Amino acid sequence: LDDPGDFSSVTGETLDIGLGGCRVVTGTPFPPGVDPTVTIEVPGAPAPVVTRARVVSACVAPGRCEYRLVFDGIDDVDRDRLFDLVA
User: Fold this and answer.
1) Which of 38, 42, 74, 75 has the fewest Cβ atoms within 10 angstroms?
2) In 29-41, which positions are buried (b, 16+ CB within 10 angstroms) versus exposed (e)?
3) Quick check: 3 pLDDT over 60?
4) Positive or negative CA dihedral for 71, 31, 1, 47?
């Protein structure tokens, strides 16, 4: 990303999730040095959980990129919905 206004989207699958973070796998890597905004669909919820995250570890290989993410700034409403999902 050369310009702060640039946007990149990477789709992945959640391998596990907790109130503080999640582990995801993607087919393409996150852009270098960029912490993602995560969108998590919650069954039965009117909207997904959306929060910033920080990458705490990455294992990047061609076709499979696995990341451990910690949520950074999740609001109370989304934390409650996430609690319902993991409970």
Assistant:
1) 75
2) ebeeeeebebebe
3) no
4) negative
